[in-house]
Structure formats: C-alpha cells, structure tokens
Amino acid sequence: MSTAAIAVPRSVRAPTNKWLVTISISFGTLMGAIDSSIVNVALPQMRGAVGATLQEITWISTAYAVALVLVMPLTAFLGRQFGQKRVYLICLGLFLLGSFLCGIATSLPALVIYRVIQGLGAGALQPTEQTILRQTFPPEEQGMAMALFAMAVMLGPAIGPTLGGYIVDNYHWSWIFFINLPVGLLGFFMVTSFVHEDPELLEHNRLAAETQRKNVDWLGIGFMWIGLGALQYFIEEGAKDDWFDSRVITLTFVLALVALAAFVIRELTAPSPAVDLRLFKDPVFLSGTAVGGLMFAMLMANLFLLPVFMQEILGFTAVQSGTALMPRALVMMLAVPIVGRIYNLVSPRAFIAFGVLLFSFSSWMLSHLTLDSGTSHIIVPLLVQGVAFACLFVPLTTVALTNVPRHRMADATGLNSLVRQMGGAIGLAAFATMLGTQGTVARAGIDAHITATRPEVWQQLQATQAGLVARGMDAASAKTAALQSMTGRVIMQSTVLSFEHIFLLAGALFLLVLPLLYFLRAPRIGPAAPPDVHVEI
Predict the structure, then answer these.
(1) What is the pTM of this model?
(2) Residue 479 domain-assigned?
(3) Can you state the angle between helices 348-366 and 375-399, rounded to 10 degrees?
(4) What is the CATH number of the domain that holds 135?
C-alpha cells in the first residue's frame, strides 16, 4: 500500500508539552502582576529623582492601572486579528520596552508615559495566558491549569512589595524595572519556541476576523476606553480629592457611567461587537466572575491594610512588613497545586464556601491585633488567609469558564480578568476610605472619655508631666508636652480601633457572597477519552 493511501490530515501536530507551555507564558503574567504593586514602595525615592510632589508621583501608579484595564477586554478582539500567540509576544515586548524606558526616565512626564506603555503591554498577558492554558490542558486537568495560573496572578501582588523593598534598600529604584528585562526575554524566547496555537481555533479566528474587519466596532471601543479610563481614574484619585467634594472627580464619575452605559448598549446591538458581553447571560460565568471580583477586592484591600498597620502602628520597616507577609505567599504556593490536583474530586461550591469561611475567620483573627502585637500574631491569620485564597481562586477561575465554548474563551478570560482588576481597585479604594472614616469615628468615641475631670486621665497627665520636669523641662513646657503625648496616644489607639473595625467588616461582607454559590453549578468532569493517534506525513 502506498504512503499516500495511509496518510492522515496534516492539521494535527505532535502533542504539545503542557508544562513547557505553562512555564513559558507564566513569566509575563507574573511580571505584570508584580509591577502592579512593586512600584508603591519605591515612590519616595522616585519622587526625589524626578522632582515630583507627593500628589504628582501617584500618577505613576494611576497611569499603569488605567492602561491595564483598557487592553484587558480587547484581548479576544486582538487575538482574532493577529492570533493569540502573536498578541502575547507583541504585548510582552511592549511591556519590556516600557520597563526599560521607565528605568532610564529622568522626568515625571516621561515616567508616566512609559508606565502607560508598560501597562498597555501588561493588559493582555493575564487573559491570554488563561486562554492558552484552558486550551492546552484537557478538561479533567482544568483545575490544575487554573492552579498554575493562580500562582502567577496572586503571588505577584503578594511578593511585589517585599521584592521592591529589598531592591530599594540595596540598589537604585530603577532596578525594579530593569529586573523585568532578563526574565521577560527568557519568557519571550520560550513562548516563541514552545507555544503553538490550535489549527482549528486559528481557522475559526480567521473567519471571525474577516467579519470583524468588515464591521470594526470603533464606537464600542471608544465608549469602553472613555468609560473604563474615567472609572479607573475615579477609583485611583477619588480618595485624594475627597470623592464627590471634588468637581473633577464628580464629573469623571458621571462620564464613566454615561460612557459605560453607552458601551453596553452598543455591544449588545453591534453586528460584530469588540467585547462579547453576552457571555454574562450564563449564570455560572456571571456568578463566578462576580465572586472573583469580590475576592480580589478583599485580597488587594488586605495587601494595602496590613503593611500600613505594620509600618505606621507597629513600627516595622518596609522590608520587615514584606517579610511578615511572605508566609501567606508561601502557603498559597503550597496550597494552590493541591487544590488544583483534587479539584475534580470535590464540589467547586464546597471549595469556595470553605474558602469564604476561612477568609472571614482570618479577618476575625486580624481584628484582634493591638499595639502590643508582633510578627507571630500576624503570621497565623495570614497562613489561614493563604489557604482561603487558594481554595477560592482555583475553583472560581475554573468553574466560571466551564460553559464557555473554546472559540469564545479569549472573550471570557478578558472579561474575567477585567472584573478581577476592577474589583481589586474598588476594594483598595473603598477600604482605604473606610479606614479614614472609621478612624474619625473611633477618635470621637475615645475623645468623649478623655477629660481632665476623670481621675485616671488626670493621673496620667500628672505622671507624664512630672517625668518631663524631672528630665529638666520647665513646668509649662512639660504640661504642653504631656497633653501632646496624650493626644498622640488617643490618635494611635483610634487608628488601631479603625483597623479592627475594617478587618471585621471585610470578613462580614465576604460572607454575603455565599448565596451566589447557588448559581455555580458546573458539570462534573469525567475521565478523559483516549486521544486520537495521528501520524503526520
């Protein structure tokens, strides 16, 4: 029999090594996630280098965040036009270019522009990795695929402050950007060598791209960019300008609402929408994505609250606070693969419910921190919290995409990533604002009991004043200093109380997501079918 007679279609290539694919595409996602938080610890040094005020230097973080959300929802749109692998490589290259330019920037305007370039590159990395992993791993291993994705997405913000603190303390601040270059170039080479797109999906995307080019949704993209940009600006800058007390912030919020409403209407009526919002008709995708956004709101709020508490209340340095946070990252690294491995053996809803309860319990433990707390008092609740986030992220990212067809996976992962990003930004802004409000309320409550007519207060003032006089201070100055000392202790204690209330509130609010688990009914994944054997001639 001739060779031609036994030939099979050439469209099927040799099996892809899924582990090489995973390692290859994780570099970019991890770097993008780290750069969302690593810059914050270096802002004081950067401010001095570029001659910016405290208000102006925050634009470095705002510019990156705004650019990030503008690209995430367009991942599928770009993938249909150019291919997922090519989009990933272009965006990774753009991210590395932005990193290099940020490292050599000498002025604030240049640094902000280069951070925009970096953010535009990072925007597509997360959703593209999620899409490629979902299409690379077989159905029965989707839990493990999302576990690997979780390690990059969740560990980035967790280790960013620690890494940034170490670099700033020992090297120049520019190295927080330069460190991306060797890692990114390695990832670029590995993606080029080991990641291959599915021929069937390539053909489907080619046909979809032809339709898309005939009806490019420029209006929808414009509404989306205006709406998301304005909303991200409102979230990032609102607290600094007292929210709706500022006319600019108020106008930005109104602009965001109008533009996003127009965007939704446009996408639901456009012949070829840039963003497939109809995916939210699936209750599993909707509820899974919503809970994921709430989870990231809690994660980012905790990443903000705990370092502030440790540095401003307990007197930790940036490196010490980062080191204290490391156990949470380490336990997540251990727990996430375990959750991914046993994902198919336990109901996703049971996993998520357990994670919600664990997080609420850890928040209750954190609400008992005091001025006398040390590292040991912080590590235990963080270990519990690390297990909680592992139990939440893997099932949520897996089950949310269960009913999504392969050819719509890029649309779904773009929306899923966007909601997580916006959830984290909203959570950070909301809890930072509530922290200030709770501090004012707590101080008012304490002030009502701090009067000179109370014997214990009078005794404290007299003891402090006597101690200062014994050290050589005159009576009038000693009395003033004693009153200032009492005021300082009141402020410090009211701040501690505000943190306690915020931690309790976070745990209580997260319990409200439990009713949403009713909609997370994912079909059970059976054993994998034996693969077809193809011989490429």
Answers:
(1) 0.73
(2) no
(3) 160
(4) 1.20.1250.20
